[in-house]
Design goal:
It is a single chain. The chain has 133 residues and is of the alpha+beta class. It has three helices and four strands, in the order βββααβα. The chain has helices spanning 43-57, 60-73, 88-114, and strands at residues 3-9, 13-20, 23-26, 84-87. α1 crosses α3. It is elongated and about 70 Å long.
């Protein structure tokens, strides 16, 4: 199981590493752009969420569908002024829940789409109109 670790280094700035067993390496440096970040909803946090999703899923298309919600659920909640450690299983669980909500939402939208539109009468007086006054 992979372990992801973010640290604030005095000389290096933000460093995000992936460890599996004894092997430790930087998290997808190609996606880092201007660097990773956490604790807010900015572009550096967005890059971190995308990199985590791509690394865990190994599927860029699937990662593109979930990374924004992963950012809001996980990355923005990490304390900006300190380091953090997250396991691969924690990220997978978050993504599984995001995808479940996405499927459930699609089902509900489909049900709503099959319902007839409400009928509105022209010249209606609106809700709560009392014709006895």
């Amino acid at each position: 199981m992979k372990i992801y670790k973010g640290e604030l280094g005095p000389a290096l700035g933000v460093v995000v590493m992936v460890g599996e067993g004894a092997q430790i390496s930087p998290l997808l440096p190609g996606l880092a752009g201007d660097g990773y970040g956490w604790g807010d909803g900015g572009p550096a946090s967005t890059r971190l969420a995308l990199a985590l999703a791509v690394d865990v899923l190994g599927d860029e298309g699937r990662a593109m569908r979930v990374y924004q919600r992963l950012k809001h659920r996980l990355v923005t909640g990490l304390r900006k002024e300190s380091g953090w450690t997250i396991t691969e299983d924690e990220i997978v669980a978050q993504i599984a829940d995001i995808e479940k909500v996405e499927r459930d939402t699609a089902t509900i939208r489909g049900m709503v789409a099959r319902e007839p539109a409400p009928v509105v009468m022209e010249g209606g007086q609106g809700i709560g109109w009392d014709s006895h006054e």
